[in-house]
Design brief:
Helix content is 36%, strand content 17%. It is an alpha/beta fold and 264 residues long. The chain has one domain: Rossmann fold (3-Layer(aba) Sandwich). The protein has a 7-stranded mixed sheet with strand order 3-2-1-4-5-7-8, with helices on both faces. Helix 1 runs parallel beside helix 7 and helix 2 (47-67) crosses helix 7 (183-206). The longest helix has 24 residues, at 183-206. The two termini are 23 Å apart.
Length: 264
């Protein structure tokens, strides 16, 4: 089963590439340059926000190092570096023509331009970090914690479409919540679960038995500019990163998401 992966260049993306390469025929791995995993913001309104911001992203990096394992030397043999997808359409078309993959999977890349969509295989899928359609766009495993909905942390496999995170949903990967874990361990476990679920999704594709479902739900689309360092006060100063514990102890109440499973 030939698979083409288009992804970002962070540890989680490398882990996913390694999983695919170990289980299937990863014909090529197109890697789009992303922002640094430890972002820099030089203007803070006060010391609290600077402290929270630095702590948050330092811890995210530490947990990603802990959870995401990969053989970089091996997967680098399949790597094709690009800056932005929209600037490399001809190169991507050439790779598609050369390898004729059965599956194209995107994860953490920029949006696929319409010019390229029409050239993609039938099974062209995006792995979105967040539960679509509830949370679409950027930082979608942060916002559920901020809005006191830790049970909405998860990942979504959906077909690619011309609207961001809006294609028919194939599967939601949701980790079981655990006591005494934090925002970063939960997000990492969600991604690890999705990587394992992808292996089962490919098995469904092999049997030509994979469909998708549209959910009639009005979610929210988050942009990168929506996130501000001040938002971290809720997580770290108000709740001391204990929102998951409070939810499990029923001290925080929220609704339940509608979940799509690849076996539905």
């Amino acid at each position: 089963m030939k698979i083409l992966l288009i992804s970002g260049d962070h540890k989680r993306h490398k882990n996913f590439a390694s999983v695919i390469d170990s289980k299937f025929e990863l014909v090529s791995w197109i890697v789009e340059k992303r922002e640094d995993s430890l972002p820099k913001i030089y203007r803070f309104k006060n010391k609290i926000d600077k402290t929270n911001f630095n702590y948050h992203f330092k811890k995210r990096d530490e947990y990603e190092k802990k959870y995401f394992k990969y053989n970089e030397k091996k997967i680098n043999q399949k790597k094709v570096k690009i800056t932005k997808i929209k600037k490399n359409i001809k190169k991507i078309k050439s790779i598609l023509k050369k390898y004729k993959p059965k599956i194209l999977i995107t994860f953490g890349s920029s949006i696929i331009p319409n010019e390229l969509l029409k050239n993609l295989p039938k099974y062209s899928i995006n792995l979105h970090s967040g539960l679509a359609p509830y949370y679409k766009g950027s930082a979608c495993n942060f916002w559920p914690i901020y809005f006191l909905q830790p049970n909405f942390v998860g990942m979504t496999f959906h077909y690619l479409s011309n609207k961001l995170d809006s294609g028919k949903i194939i599967h939601h990967s949701i980790p079981k919540l655990k006591l005494n874990e934090n925002i970063h361990s939960l997000a990492c476990r969600a991604q690890i679960k999705a990587f394992k679920d992808f292996v089962k999704i490919v098995d469904k594709i092999k049997k030509n038995n994979l469909s998708g479902k549209s959910l009639d739900i009005n979610g929210k689309l988050f942009q990168k500019k929506d996130f501000k360092p001040e938002h971290l006060r809720i997580v770290y100063n108000t709740f001391k990163d204990s929102i998951i514990n409070l939810f499990l102890k029923k001290k925080i109440l929220t609704n339940k998401p509608i979940i799509v499973n690849y076996n539905d």
